[in-house]
Specification:
34% strand, alpha+beta, 7-stranded antiparallel β-sheet, 8-stranded mixed β-sheet, Rossmann fold, 37 strands
């Protein structure tokens, strides 16, 4: 795809907005694209500009309609139409979800143990009917099995309407709030539920308690008043006896416990917040199990009593090699999620002192603890995959040590793992750090530098990108591309230190790691400069914005989904939904001149300069509360006005969705097909289909 000379891209008006910070002047020529009434967006000029961008996107993509349709058919062909989850026992019932053939959304079901008498407890297709967007945040059945609390969003703004349904009648009996996030938690007697409230700035400020049938305002269990950068959440202990109320930012946390049998009891503070100390808690009986980074950067596991919750005794010490990521306290043992040398594992610590890892079938993989709602888990449910092994549901039998496969992701159109190979490489970054890279390709991929390569990265918030399976990815592999994941600093792929090494004043490591991985793969013969496509979303979109500024010659095509690219202006505006909570990640440029200078030095929007940029596809969501729509819109406008090249630049704003794009399992595939078509076209690969 090259720009059609008969099609004129939208040109955003230049209206400089000038501000001063720390004696420095910022000039923002496209600040007007932010609607003054946000989160309402109804400015006619702004909507007209976004609509024009969407029309230009559609016109430019029209010649690729055949390729897009072919890819979409492939993606859909890999989706099991009548898919279902493996049932999970909880009390007197088994629970699972099912997709009916052709359905975009799940139907949730249950049946009494030992029977085939299934009952529909929630129909997402029915709830989604008449809406362009639908997302279920989650649901929770009351302990007595009679009621269901569920939260749904029909705009993409992530303000979920929380309702309660009577499962006998199938009727909703209460609308609790229109401003919740997260999954509600029931009291032990099934008469009340705790939920998380967001305010007008989409900040998680309170945990409320709703008592069924009561009038008036819901009681406040906890409200965060000390730090506007902290957000609250509520969970429950594995034994169901405690509400676990957490308040935290990205690096510091503080937890309180409230008995589910007595929600009116004063919250029990585990340990007061201490800057830089992150901890979480599970409870079994009178013992607390705490995962904390107070004595080692990769966390330890400690115990404490309910009588003295702040007095911690180490059970499992911190390790330079083993990064402890989570702990669940089941009857008789702890299930510990950890990452060693960059690979996931599940460790079991028994009350009698025995300790071992769950054996897994492949050396390179990803594994996580799945749904295990009951206090005892004699068979621990796990989720597993690798770059070549489809997503699998496993049960590990605790008594026998046997691993049982309950489900493997079905790919109806066919999949032969023997056609593909995967490797894990280490690339040396410019500062000497060795960065892991996971690569998958179809056998026969050339290693003489002539290959086509797609490189994916994220690198923020301590979120690792595991070497997991993607059926969608096959549409690239089968057309001759290799697919690589750069496990760059900023994620926690190699431990918590790996995260710390890619944030604040060390943020540039994330970007240079990605470029160095690309160059390392070139040196290893996987590809050549200008023959690599790249993609990332949200903070990974920020990554895309930086690397097209610093190293545009490397990329054949770049896709930036809902990219966080106007970093400096966003971090300077504490009225925005997430800004105060983001300062521990990026720095506070309002009060800290060094943070201002650091962010300004890499912020993609502020560093667009006259040079030839690679082909770019940029996406946005009008209702996105995480990366506001104007960030990608402003960036696209500035790129168009500044580039010295002639390569295509497209901006697509989803006018009825938020951060995650379209909802529904098939509608989401439409956007994936468009992005793949854009990438493949830039490589000169048409719609002949896979080899």
């Amino acid at each position: 795809m090259t720009p059609d000379p008969s099609l004129s891209p939208p040109v955003a008006a230049i209206r400089p907005h000038i501000s001063s910070h720390h004696g420095e002047t910022l000039v923002d020529p496209y600040a007007w694209l932010r609607d003054a009434g946000y989160p309402t967006v109804d400015d006619p000029e702004i909507l007209a500009h976004l609509t024009a961008e969407n029309a230009y996107f559609e016109a430019c993509m029209k010649p690729l309609a055949g390729l897009t349709a072919t890819i979409l058919d492939e993606l859909k062909g890999r989706v099991k139409q009548d898919d279902a989850s493996v049932p999970v026992k909880d009390g007197d019932f088994e629970y699972w979800w099912r997709f009916e053939a052709g359905a975009q959304y799940r139907t949730w079901l249950r049946r009494p143990l030992g029977t085939d008498a299934e009952q529909i407890i929630l129909s997402e297709p029915a709830l989604a009917e008449g809406h362009d967007y639908f997302r279920l945040a989650g649901s929770a059945v009351s302990p007595d099995g009679r009621l269901l609390a569920y939260a749904a969003d029909t705009s993409g703004d992530e303000r979920f309407v929380l309702k309660v349904r009577d499962l006998e009648s199938g009727m909703d009996i209460a609308t609790v709030t229109a401003n919740s996030v997260g999954i509600p938690v029931w009291s032990a007697d099934s008469t009340a539920l705790a939920w998380t409230e967001v305010n007008e700035n989409w900040r998680r400020i309170r945990i409320r308690l709703h008592r069924l049938g009561s009038g008036g305002e819901d009681a406040t269990l906890y409200e965060e008043v000390l730090d506007k950068g902290f957000g609250v959440s509520v969970d429950r202990s594995q034994d169901g006896a405690w509400f676990i109320i957490s308040t935290s930012d990205h690096v510091t946390s503080e937890i309180r416990l409230v008995p589910t049998a007595d929600p009116a009891a004063p919250p029990l503070l585990v340990r007061q917040r201490n800057p830089g100390v992150s901890y979480d808690v599970d409870v079994r009986g009178s013992t607390l199990f705490i995962r904390a980074n107070d004595s080692h950067v990769n966390f330890r596991i400690a115990t404490a009593s309910l009588e003295s919750p702040g007095e911690w005794t180490t059970l499992i010490g911190g390790s330079d090699r083993d990064f402890i990521r989570g702990v669940s306290a089941f009857a008789g043992y702890l299930a510990i999620s950890q990452r060693s040398d960059g690979l996931d594992g599940v460790r079991l610590r028994f009350d009698d002192g025995r300790d071992h890892l769950v054996p897994l079938p492949e050396a390179s993989h990803t594994v996580s603890i799945g749904a295990n709602p009951e206090p005892a888990a004699p068979q621990l449910r796990l989720n597993y995959s690798s770059m070549v092994t489809p997503a699998s549901v496993l049960d590990y039998d605790i008594a026998s040590g046997r691993l049982v496969t309950r489900k493997v992701q079905a790919i109806p159109s066919g999949y032969d793992a023997g056609l593909y190979e995967t490797e894990r490489l280490m690339v040396t970054a410019r500062d000497g750090t060795r960065v892991p890279v996971s690569v998958v390709y179809r056998k026969g991929f050339p290693r003489d530098g002539s290959g086509k390569l797609h490189l994916y990265g994220y690198g923020a918030y301590g979120i690792a990108i595991p070497p997991s399976f993607s059926a969608n990815r096959l549409s690239l592999l089968d057309r001759g591309l290799a697919f690589a994941i750069a496990h760059i600093r900023g994620g926690d792929d190699l431990g918590y230190d790996w995260y710390l090494a890619g944030k604040l004043e060390r943020r540039r490591n994330t970007f240079t790691d990605f470029v160095d991985v690309a160059n390392g793969l070139i040196a290893a013969g996987y590809s050549s400069a200008g023959n690599i496509s790249a993609s990332g979303g949200s903070a990974g979109g920020e990554l895309m914005g930086v690397v097209v500024n610093t190293d545009p010659q490397l990329w054949r095509a770049v896709v930036a989904d809902v990219p966080f690219v106007d970093v400096l202006n966003t971090m300077l505006d504490e009225s925005l939904p997430l800004t105060p909570g983001e300062w521990p990640e990026w720095g506070n440029p309002i009060t800290d001149k060094a943070a201002f200078d650091t962010i300004r030095s890499y912020s993609p929007y502020d560093n667009v300069r006259p040079q030839s940029y690679p082909p770019l596809l940029i996406t946005a969501g009008l209702n996105d509360p995480r990366v506001t729509y104007w960030e990608p819109a402003k960036w696209a406008a500035r790129l168009r006005a500044t580039t010295t090249g002639n390569d295509i630049l497209l901006l697509k704003t989803n006018m009825a969705a938020g951060h995650g794009g379209k909802s529904g399992r098939f509608s989401a595939l439409e956007e994936q097909a468009e992005e793949y078509a854009f990438i493949l076209d830039q490589f000169g690969i048409g719609d002949a289909g896979p080899r």
